[in-house]
Design a protein that fits this description.
- This protein is α+β, with helices and mostly antiparallel strands and about 1050 residues long.
- Helix content is about 25%, strand content about 15%.
- Strands 31, 32, 33, 34, 35, 36, 37, 38, 39, 40, 41, 42 and 43 form a 13-stranded mixed beta sheet that branches. It has a 4-stranded antiparallel beta sheet with strand order 24-27-28-29, with no helix packed on it.
- Strand 40 and strand 41 form a beta hairpin.
- It is elongated and about 105 Å long.
Length: about 1050
């Protein structure tokens, strides 16, 4: 795109702004918003307090003016026509600040503690019940950003204010921080909402009276649809509303020294995060009083949750170099919530969970998108995309995930090309618009992402996206007195409203897109844009502060220390001739196919008569209605010069293989007569890890084929994953567990459902005295990447899961009984460990399941009959009943020249040794020969301690053990072939596993510095005789196959 073309688009953007802003001042100021069709002010709906669409936002404090001030400040750096437009914008900015102070005073108090008054109100002492979130991002954020521009902390070209506290403007106004005091006044009126026990703020507050209306909150019941029975005030907030206050409130606290705001906002953010599900997702709605997620518990990236992710990452930038706020009694346990790295980790964890559970890849769709998933399990629930999700590509680009951001943005660009706007909600499955969400409210998120991605890639494709947006807005949204919303993006009907964010965000991001030389596009400070598009920054004089260790943490350009700071890739060089990388992508048509652009050769919404510029028309030219290419290319303004002449589309991936297993009626009544063909009560049981199947009778399992996961046996490169049971979708990480009794009724020779023994791995079932350092089940923060899984022997109540499961799907109500929760179910498919749930059976003896891997090679020996419990369910064996009692723990690697004493080999069934210092064969060769007997050595357990692993194993992030190789036959210490080879397994030797095996051992020994064997005593307190209940058994693993393809997430108990 040429400089002249960009300059023309910049001029068109200025015209967009002033057509709305000038008409707002003329027809609506000092009210909150403008009605652009009727040329009237838009005020609160006093006749209907329940009209939260208006009343949550409009607080009678001139919100459009406040929202527009930072846009004026950005326009003030315009250099076109010798800086004439920039000078005009600066005058408008200063006049706007002056008008605001004249209306509401300067926010200060007189000697009697009364607010100084303006012509409209004394500060924001207004009888207006507003939403905390909207008032913060529009009002508080707008005032703070304008203040930072006014004092020169945010850049305006050729504006260099004095630094003595009083700034004299050409309109005879002296600025001395009035906007900051007004922001403090407004934010102070929001603080009563934070008086909950959960740390989550109430969603609404009255700017004059506080939260008195929540006094009757317990008198009624809040329904799922948002209505209420009785006088109950709705206490439901959302993750975005409660967790998106940190940027504004921290900036306010640092500028004023009043740290109530920063502390309240941070507590609210972490109160949301600590309620995330076990799969790392957060939901949309939660109750401020109880902290419970509201029904249905959905997770996504859009409405209700969007800005939480945004503020997680941006807080790590804004907080860089800032120490914790000063408090009288600092709580060291809460120091994490002031550290910018903590917020970065929240973003990284959230992004990982989103990519795992919400992202729909090309394996299930023509083009990737982000859908709605079950909060608790990550199972797919809905396939719609909402307009608010369009912010996410920009956030990805800001976080350095540029490729993922580019990919995500393409879908929104194709959608805009199809509808000349973005519908509020679009259904991927049907390719149509949700009937109740056909409108476009002038939202900025798509334009925001376009700006971020252009800054990251410098690809002219994004400039043409911005051109498309401007042309469509001018053609479809122009009204005599401003820019109207679209009530229907297909029919084009207008709605008589211009929300404040249209001037405060949408136009702002368009202008920044077309002004590459703007100071905000060139700076290298920790400036962040709030979710309302207001730039914020902490002045450098406040940025270097110490943490608890007394060391000053200097800010980096990314807001965290350089060791952990993410990096953004440099823009790639332009392609020869066609320049644009986006227009040359092989998957460009894939997004077009998903949005069905190829079915819309002529878009009727783009048809329009050509009109000259006049008082009744914005002026419609041929460029505004006709695409220079065709509508399968997007944006529809994309010129031929950017399109490769012989470009080809990459082949779309084929849909994955989907299979269904339908089991016959296995219900038999008295006399062997088949029972009713229904899924019986209790057939399905919800447990922590997924679903437990007690009966396969009449059950239908839906399976999808995918690449084989770690630890699954067999030779196939793919596996099935059960994705649904009886029309109930499962999450990607949910397991399906089936009892032995349920499998007995199925023919063993059925190729559609067969059981296969795992020849590579087993589970060690261990009863051990609980180590003195380990109590309880942990805090749930870690997933137990280690090896040990502590079996929950007793079934415990879990009423929360019961309620959630039952309410979510009426179809299986009564079938999915979550009366129990089996923690840490064994039999997982490979890997180092399976979890970390535990139950102390009695007197400190705990049952554990440890994943172990069998060796391969000429020296590998089968498990002896005493240990091979192929047909016995060891988990049902009571404490003290496991087959192996005598375990010897050797705290050594057992390498030549050391030899194991013969007494140990003859008197213990199991030997535990550490890996390293020699080969596996040499370890076995250090064990003397002995006559086989039931009392002698049966099994050697190798502890793969971290320091013994190779670099490749240490890089393995999936916890998979490498199978030991015994490449030669086993030999005795004298070099003769061992007649009765020893069975061996290897386990992950982390601290927890070592503690478990020590707790099960009866004997202990090591070699001293001189190589002499020394018997040791168990550390810690006496076991009180409970060592008689310790023991060990080996549990065989099995996997299930369907037509030779393993079923990865199906486990038999």
């Amino acid at each position: 795109m040429t400089r002249d073309e960009i300059s023309n688009l910049r001029a068109s953007t200025r015209d967009l702004f002033y057509h709305g802003y000038d008409n707002y001042l003329l027809h609506a100021f000092p009210e909150d918003e403008l009605r652009p069709i009727s040329c009237q002010p838009q005020t609160r709906n006093a006749d209907n307090p329940a009209d939260i669409g208006l009343n949550d936002v409009l607080g009678n404090y001139s919100v459009t003016l406040i929202d527009s001030l930072s846009t004026l400040a950005i326009l003030a750096s315009d250099t076109d026509e010798g800086g004439k437009h920039g000078a005009h914008a600066l005058r408008e900015f200063q006049n706007g600040v002056k008008a605001l102070v004249e209306l509401y005073g300067d926010g200060t108090e007189d000697e009697d503690g009364r607010k100084t008054c303006g012509s409209r109100a004394c500060g924001f002492d207004l009888d207006s019940k507003v939403q905390v979130f909207e008032t913060n991002i529009r009002g508080v954020g707008g005032l703070l950003s304008a203040h930072l521009f006014a004092i020169g902390e945010l850049p305006i070209l050729n504006y260099n204010p004095a630094s003595d506290g009083s700034i004299h403007w050409s309109n005879d106004f002296v600025y001395n921080g009035q906007l900051l005091t007004l922001a403090h006044d407004l934010a102070s009126r929001l603080l009563p909402a934070f008086s909950t026990s959960t740390g989550l703020p109430y969603p609404r507050v009255n700017l004059r009276h506080g939260i008195h209306f929540y006094g009757d909150a317990e008198a009624g019941v809040c329904r799922v649809d948002g209505t209420s029975s009785g006088p109950r005030e709705i206490t439901e907030t959302c993750s975005a509303g409660a967790g998106s206050l940190v940027l504004e409130f921290t900036t306010l606290s640092r500028l004023t020294g009043d740290f109530r705001f920063e502390l309240a906002a941070k507590r609210a953010f972490w109160a949301v995060w600590e309620r995330r599900s076990n799969v790392g997702l957060i939901g949309g709605g939660l109750d401020a009083e109880t902290g419970s997620w509201t029904m249905p518990p959905l997770a996504g990236i859009g409405a209700g949750v969007d800005s939480f992710f945004e503020y997680a990452f941006k807080s790590s930038i804004l907080l860089s170099g800032l120490g914790p706020p000063p408090t009288k009694d600092p709580d060291k346990a809460l120091a994490f919530m002031h550290n910018p790295s903590s917020y970065l980790r929240v973003w990284e964890t959230s992004h990982t969970a989103i990519k795992r559970h919400i992202y729909r890849s090309t394996s299930v769709s023509q083009f990737p998108y982000y859908a709605q998933s079950d909060l608790l399990t990550g199972a797919p629930r809905y396939t719609w995309i909402d307009n608010l999700s369009a912010y996410y590509p920009g956030l990805l680009a800001l976080a350095g995930e540029v490729e993922e951001g580019v990919e995500s943005h393409m879908l929104f660009s194709a959608l805009w090309t199809r509808y000349s706007a973005l519908p509020e909600r679009w259904q991927v499955g049907s390719g149509g618009i949700d009937v109740n969400f056909r409108h476009w409210a002038g939202r900025p998120e798509f334009i925001e992402s376009t700006w971020y991605l252009y800054q990251a890639t410098r690809d002219p494709w994004y400039l043409h996206v911005g051109e498309m947006v401007i042309r469509d807005i001018r053609r479809r949204c122009w009204a005599k007195c401003g820019w109207a919303d679209l009530s229907d993006v297909v029919g084009g009907e207008q709605r008589d409203r211009m929300e404040s964010f249209f001037l405060g965000e949408t136009v702002k991001y368009l202008y920044l897109l077309f002004d590459e030389e703007h100071p905000l596009n060139k700076g290298d400070r920790a400036v962040v844009f709030s979710t309302e598009g207001h730039p914020l920054v902490i002045p450098e004089r406040l940025r270097a502060r110490s943490y608890g260790d007394g060391k000053v943490k200097a800010a980096t350009s990314h807001g965290v220390s350089s060791d952990t700071a993410p990096t953004c890739p440099a823009p790639p060089p332009s392609l020869p001739l066609t320049i644009s990388h986006l227009a040359n992508r092989g998957d460009l048509f894939h997004a077009a196919a998903l949005t069905q652009l190829h079915l819309v050769p002529i878009n009727p919404t783009r048809s329009s008569p050509l009109m000259e510029v006049s008082r009744t028309s914005p002026g419609i030219s041929l460029q505004d209605v006709r695409s220079p290419t065709n509508y399968t290319f997007y944006p529809w303004t994309l010129p031929q010069t950017l399109i490769p002449p012989q470009g080809t589309s990459a082949v779309m991936k084929r849909s994955p293989v989907v299979s269904t297993l339908t089991f016959p009626n296995l219900n038999l009544e008295d006399g062997g007569v088949p029972g009713p063909q229904i899924i019986g009560l209790g057939a399905l049981q919800k447990v922590v890890e997924g679903v437990l199947i007690n009966s396969l009778s009449n059950l239908r399992l839906s399976m999808i084929q995918q690449p084989k996961s770690v630890g699954i046996g067999g030779t196939r490169e793919e596996e099935f994953r059960i994705q649904g049971i009886a029309n109930w979708a499962l999450g990607r990480d949910e397991k399906v567990m089936v009892t032995r009794e349920a499998v007995r009724g199925v023919s063993a020779g059925d190729p559609h459902f067969s059981r296969v023994k795992d020849l590579e791995g087993v589970d060690l079932v261990v009863d051990a005295v609980a180590p003195s350092y380990h109590e309880g089940g942990g805090d749930g923060e870690e997933d137990g990447d280690g090896v040990v899984e502590e079996w929950e022997v007793e079934v415990t109540e879990n009423g929360t899961l019961e309620g959630i499961w039952g309410e979510l799907e009426e179809m299986v109500k009564g079938l999915l009984s979550s009366s129990g929760s089996l923690g840490g179910l064994g039999g997982g498919m490979g890997g180092a460990g399976l979890g970390s749930a535990e139950v102390v059976r009695e007197a400190g003896v705990v049952r554990h399941v440890i994943s172990a891997i069998l060796p391969t090679g000429a020296g590998a020996a089968p498990l002896p009959p005493l240990l091979d419990s192929a047909n016995e369910d060891l988990m049902q064996v009571p404490a003290g009943g496991l087959p192996i009692k005598s375990i010897f723990f050797l705290d050594s690697t057992l390498c030549p020249p050391y030899r194991l004493p013969a007494a140990v080999a003859k008197g213990y069934n199991v030997l535990v040794v550490r890996r390293g210092d020699c080969s596996f064969g040499e370890k076995l060769a250090s064990i003397p020969s002995f006559a086989p007997s039931d009392e002698a050595l049966q099994l050697v357990i190798i502890l793969s301690v971290p320091e013994s692993r190779s670099e490749g194993e240490q890089r393995n992030t999936q916890g998979q053990l490498i199978r030991p190789l015994l490449d030669e036959v086993q030999r005795t210490p004298n070099g003769f072939e061992r007649r009765n080879a020893l069975a061996m397994v290897m386990v992950d030797g982390d601290e927890e596993t070592v503690g478990v095996l020590r707790g099960a051992a009866r004997g202990f020994g090591a070699f001293d510095e001189r190589g002499k064997f020394v018997e040791l005593k168990q550390d810690g307190e006496s076991t009180g005789g409970k060592d008689s209940e310790t023991g060990l058994g080996v549990k065989r693993r099995y996997w299930f196959e369907s037509m030779g393809v393993p079923i990865g997430n199906l486990i038999m108990l």
